[in-house]
Known about the structure:
The complex is a heterodimer of chains A (209) and B (108).
Chain A: H1 25-28, E1 38-43, E2 47-52, H2 58-68, E3 78-81, E4 84-90, E5 93-98, H3 103-113, E6 120-123, E7 128-134, H4 138-145, E8 160-165, E9 168-176, E10 179-185, H5 189-199, E11 205-207
Parallel strand pairs in A: 1-11
Antiparallel strand pairs in A: 1-7, 2-5, 2-6, 3-4, 4-5, 7-10, 8-9, 9-10
Helix pairs in contact in A: 2-3
Chain B: E1 3-6, E2 11-14, E3 19-23, H1 37-45, E4 53-59, E5 67-73, E6 79-84, H2 93-107
Antiparallel strand pairs in B: 1-2, 3-4, 4-5, 5-6
Amino acid sequence: xxxxxxxxxxxxxxxxxxxxxxxxxxxxxxxxxxxxxxxxxxxxxxxxxxxxxxxxxxxxxxxxxxxxxxxxxxxxxxxxxxxxxxxxxxxxxxxxxxxxxxxxxxxxxxxxxxxxxxxxxxxxxxxxxxxxxxxxxxxxxxxxxxxxxxxxxxxxxxxxxxxxxxxxxxxxxxxxxxxxxxxxxxxxxxxxxxxxxxxxxxxxxxxxx
Amino acid sequence: xxxxxxxxxxxxxxxxxxxxxxxxxxxxxxxxxxxxxxxxxxxxxxxxxxxxxxxxxxxxxxxxxxxxxxxxxxxxxxxxxxxxxxxxxxxxxxxxxxxxxxxxxxxx
Lengths: 209, 108
């Protein structure tokens, strides 16, 4: 049995602030143009878990599947099931995002299924946040910001890449036709927020909660 | 701007996502305690500086954050191939010389 200390890292009675707390996004809701080309939502305080293990080991893939109900995704892809998503980050690393408050249960379930295997599960919820961009001009905003080719031919729905964006680094996920998700680090969140406001100004930016 | 193929991601990415980490295939002496100062100094400090084919260690720091090896020409900066750690390069000084010799043999 593993002696890893697994505990509730964000107790329900503790005050939690998202990395963009200072931007007061809730006060900006409804103040943007009505025909905005870009709509931004911060999916805040979700449970982010980094899962590492041997992706070539069928026992590992099988255990992850049984614990999460999702097949272990291959290179540059993301799968989702219910409110959770599992994304390939590198050949031995995946990012699991679960709804707020479910991270402890997800971690325990994974640890149970993967007992005895050489793995690591780390709760990185406090270190990053998720921005969702929707709208007809989101792709233009991304084209201005990253050197990665975001044309649907190269970046279909279900693909997720870690790349450079502006002068920082993040993960871009194409979750639906006109919907893109950015997984950004806490310390860069203000930079991305300022960048996205500037980059989407010409198309109109509206904030949705 | 160079495009470099990451063998882990399986696609070509722009150069700004990568960092070079010097010469590849440096083998650590099995018994450091038995090395002479010269052997240990060579292992720690001395690197090849060829004019031509060079095998290098690169890292996809902006993407999957994994190391891999690249075979690069130090004059033209052409990257002949990238391959995972533990694999052997298919393009080497010898293979390029052999290809050149056979090409000259055909045209001569």
